């Protein structure tokens, strides 16, 4: 073999350079690492942006609501608020999808990163090629590999760009929203229409007041004077009627069945009845519930599209106006000694449920906000309280919409937007049944048979020993019925029938009157008169003024526990035997 031939032969050496493998592996690792960092940054930015625009806490929505406070009759503002609310919730769902995708891509990036590092530093004895021709061949392979790396770079960069791009919010500000014309997913009735209905316990404001004042001054169930209709109803339910346009809803239930009923508001005919039963997770046998509460003590609620009901068996359901179940869910095993009685509330697209049970240390009590259309939980808040039978109250004060709840030992206010706590007052005792009432900047809450408390709800944190507690009174404190509050007066009536009028500004008792009858029904304000219904069927109308003045008294041969409803100058009363519709027949005939 010649010398030249010997020189052209490849010469092998046992070395460990790994240049080619390291270069490719490290480049891919750098790219994968940068990709993971990019994903993490995008998800972090999205998280911060989400915190900043949480569906009901957005600046644009707050600005619109503040404008609505200044111009409550501006229908265009109300439409804008509803539109923005829906867009915010759509964006919220989009954010959740982005987070899910981001997590998957981040894991993929980490796997590629780790694999590339292992490849780069995987050692093996290689043959070092010293022949120039062979080196050129290796260089060619290296550049081909570099092209593959560049392809990985382009792909990962493109994915990263898409991630960052999709993490950006499309939510318009309030000025841009005014020009928007995107279609609504679901159009709920306007606030103006809402106020003309009786959509929940104690009416549209939740305080027993109504916009209607033209009720008959006389009626008689025996002769039929101004009794538009009466119809038999199931006796196993203490909840009050709710009304939307031409439909009256109520519920009834016992250990055998729980049902929702819908009546025609014009003639009292039963339109449909729907059973709520066999929900997923619910036991075959319902819990034991005392007769004095029953399975259907909680008043229903409606958002103008659906009717909502809950029973002492913790079966929660939404029904369409033609009686079909839209969604239903079992809320778990009840731990309530007297059964469930807290009524449902609606606000915008939300259904609010106060589900207090057990003792404080059990940590079972919660406040829920569900999406009315789907039943999905929008937010839920753990409550440091025991069982309660009071209904929460929604109102706006100082530009903030609050949900106030009562239970032992606290009155707590939450933000309607996300369920965060705004303030709390410690000092609620007994078995809490009376619901709060609000008017003219004053919130009135009841600690049963103990004291009446007036609160300025603009405080924050623990307000127990602060200036935000305006006054307290221990005179004639109710234990079941809820107070009625006007600009100048606070009215309460005890179970034993003592009606009391307090000065709203300082809590001084102005007068009281003993009817000598038992009351479970809370007072309702119709015009300038209080409507009070005793358990034995006596209906009193009393002037809502600084002295006691009885206007009229009607006797009805029925028993009453529910509070009245007032819509279209008609009074709807649920007795143990009948559902009554009372109105001025002369006025009706002239229309």
For this entry, give a set of tags.
five-stranded mixed β-sheet, 591 residues, four-stranded antiparallel β-sheet, 26% helix
Quick summary of this structure?
This protein has eight helices and 35 strands.
Structure write-up:
The structure is a single chain. With about 600 residues, this protein is of the alpha+beta class. It has a domain at about 10-180. Helix content is about 25%, strand content about 30%. The protein has 8 helices and 35 strands. The strands form 9 sheets. Strands 16-17-18-19-23 form a 5-stranded mixed sheet, with no helix packed on it. It has a 4-stranded antiparallel sheet with strand order 3-35-34-33. The chain has a 4-stranded antiparallel sheet with strand order 4-5-6-7, with no helix packed on it. α2 runs antiparallel to α4, α2 runs parallel beside α5 and α3 runs antiparallel to α4 (about 75-120). The radius of gyration is 34 Å and the shape is elongated.
């Amino acid at each position: 073999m010649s010398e030249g031939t010997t020189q052209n032969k490849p010469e092998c050496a046992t070395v460990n350079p790994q240049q080619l493998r390291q270069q490719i592996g490290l480049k891919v690792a750098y790219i994968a690492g940068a990709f993971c960092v990019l994903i993490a940054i995008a998800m972090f930015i999205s998280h911060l942006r989400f915190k900043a625009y949480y569906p009901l806490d957005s600046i644009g929505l707050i600005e619109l609501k503040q404008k609505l406070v200044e111009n409550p009759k501006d229908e265009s503002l109300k439409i804008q608020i509803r539109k923005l609310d829906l867009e915010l919730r759509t964006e919220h769902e989009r954010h959740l999808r982005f987070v899910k995708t981001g997590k998957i891509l981040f894991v993929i990036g980490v796997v590629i990163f780790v694999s590339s590092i292992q490849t780069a530093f995987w050692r093996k004895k290689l043959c070092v090629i010293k022949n120039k021709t062979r080196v050129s061949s290796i260089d060619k392979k290296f550049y081909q590999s570099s092209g593959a790396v560049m392809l990985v770079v382009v792909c990962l960069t493109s994915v990263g760009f898409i991630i960052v791009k999709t993490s950006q919010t499309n939510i318009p500000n309030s000025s841009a929203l005014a020009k928007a014309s995107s279609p609504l997913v679901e159009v709920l009735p306007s606030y103006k229409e809402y106020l003309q209905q009786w959509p929940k316990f104690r009416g549209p404001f939740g305080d027993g007041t109504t916009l209607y004042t033209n009720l008959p001054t006389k009626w008689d169930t025996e002769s039929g004077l101004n009794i538009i209709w009466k119809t038999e109803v199931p006796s196993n339910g203490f909840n009050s009627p709710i009304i939307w346009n031409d439909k009256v809803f109520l519920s009834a239930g016992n250990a055998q069945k729980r049902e929702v009923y819908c009546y025609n508001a014009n003639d009292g005919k039963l339109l449909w009845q729907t059973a709520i039963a066999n929900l997923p997770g619910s036991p075959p046998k319902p819990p034991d519930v005392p007769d004095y509460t029953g399975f259907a003590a909680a008043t229903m609620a409606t958002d103008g599209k659906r009717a909502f009901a809950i029973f002492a068996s913790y079966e929660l359901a939404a029904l369409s106006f033609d009686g079909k179940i839209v969604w239903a869910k079992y809320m778990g095993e009840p731990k309530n000694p007297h059964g469930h009685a807290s009524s449902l509330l609606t606000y915008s697209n939300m259904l609010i449920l106060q589900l207090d049970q057990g003792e404080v240390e059990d940590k079972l009590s919660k406040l829920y906000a569900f999406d009315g259309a789907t039943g999905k939980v929008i937010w839920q808040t753990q409550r440091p309280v025991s069982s309660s039978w009071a209904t929460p109250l929604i109102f706006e004060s100082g530009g903030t919409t609050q949900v106030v709840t009562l239970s032992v030992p606290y009155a707590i206010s939450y933000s309607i937007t996300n369920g965060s706590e705004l303030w709390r007052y410690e000092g609620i005792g007994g078995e809490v049944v009376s619901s709060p009432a609000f008017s003219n900047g004053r919130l009135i809450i009841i600690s049963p048979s103990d004291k009446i408390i007036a609160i300025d709800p603009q405080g924050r944190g623990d307000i127990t020993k602060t200036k935000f507690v305006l006054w307290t009174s221990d005179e004639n404190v109710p234990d079941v019925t809820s107070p009625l509050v006007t600009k100048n007066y606070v009215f309460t009536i005890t179970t034993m029938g003592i009606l009391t009028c307090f000065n709203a500004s300082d809590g001084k008792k102005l007068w009281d009157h003993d009817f000598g009858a038992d009351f479970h029904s809370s007072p309702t304000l119709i015009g300038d008169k209080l409507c009070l219904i005793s358990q034995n069927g006596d209906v009193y109308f009393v002037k809502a003024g600084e002295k006691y003045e009885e206007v009229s008294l009607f006797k009805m041969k029925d028993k009453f526990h529910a509070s009245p409803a007032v819509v279209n100058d008609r009074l709807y009363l649920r007795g143990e035997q009948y559902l009554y519709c009372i109105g001025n027949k002369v006025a009706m005939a002239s229309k």
